[in-house]
Amino acid sequence: MTASTALPPCSILLLAGGQGRRMGGRDKGLLTWRGEPLIAHLQRLARPLTDDLIISCNRNHEQYAAFADRLVQDDEEGFPGPYAGIRSGLAVARHGFLLVMPCDTPMLDLQLLQGLRATAAAHPGKPVMIRQGEQWEPLLCCIPTAHAEVFERHWQEGQRSPRRTMAELGAVALQCAADDPRLANLNTPELLTEIKP
User: Fold this and answer.
1) What average pLDDT is seen over the chain?
2) What is the pLDDT of residues 3-38, one digit of tens each?
3) Pairing mode, strands 135-144 and 128-132
């Protein structure tokens, strides 16, 4: 815990509220990879870093509750997208930063998460997003929770792109290689079986 105690405390949000269209409508976070639900891999990685672990989910609440300090869900029907989950997480986060991860990225590691947190601490007031090669990854980010009102206002104005809101807030990048294996999204049945440990 020495690495994490040197950084400001953070809340952590695991995004598991999607419809899972590419998974045939199945709840991605509860699909098995390496013998465990995807959400278990993320929870094990995140748990040592926070006492405020939040999961955004819109179904299977009882199963997800075992992996979180608390749950949030979208206040609109129809799976409105990850912006809704981030907005809900920011509204309840107890610490000054919210570290966000999607549930289908089980190959993330501590170095990457601590890099997000350290970059955020070094750029006060600015969100940090992973940039994989030239591609921004807005669902892998660290957001100062002071921006909760901005996210809420943008949501009410119809904004549904987390990247656009963070760009307006002066987001900075944590740069990763284009082929960084830690950033693999296991978001199709093929990837879930092809990506081996």
Assistant:
1) 89
2) 445 899 999 999 996 655 555 567 889 989 889 999
3) antiparallel
Question: Which tokens hold the place of 65?
Answer: 């509750």
Structure tokens at 126: 């600015």
CA gap 122, 70 in Å, rounded: 29
Task: Say how far residue 163 (Cα) sits from the centre of its chain.
Answer: 13
Number of domains the chain contains: 1
What six digits make up the tokens of 184?
């693999």
Dihedral pair phi/psi, residue 19, rounded to 5°: -80, -20
Nearest CA to 102 out of 31, 183, 194 is that of 183
Distance CA 53, CA 78 (A): 25
CATH of the domain at 77: 3.90.550.10
In the numeric block, which tokens belong to residue 54?
Answer: 């939040």
H-run or E-run covering 54 = strand 53-57
Strands (E), 63-192: 70-72, 97-102, 128-132, 135-144, 172-176
Span 104-135, pLDDT tens digits:
999 999 999 999 999 999 999 999 999 999 99
Q: Which of 61, 74, 67, 60 is nearest to 40 (CA)?
A: 67
Please give the residue range of the domain that contains residue 164.
2-194
The structure tokens listed for 130 are 């992973």
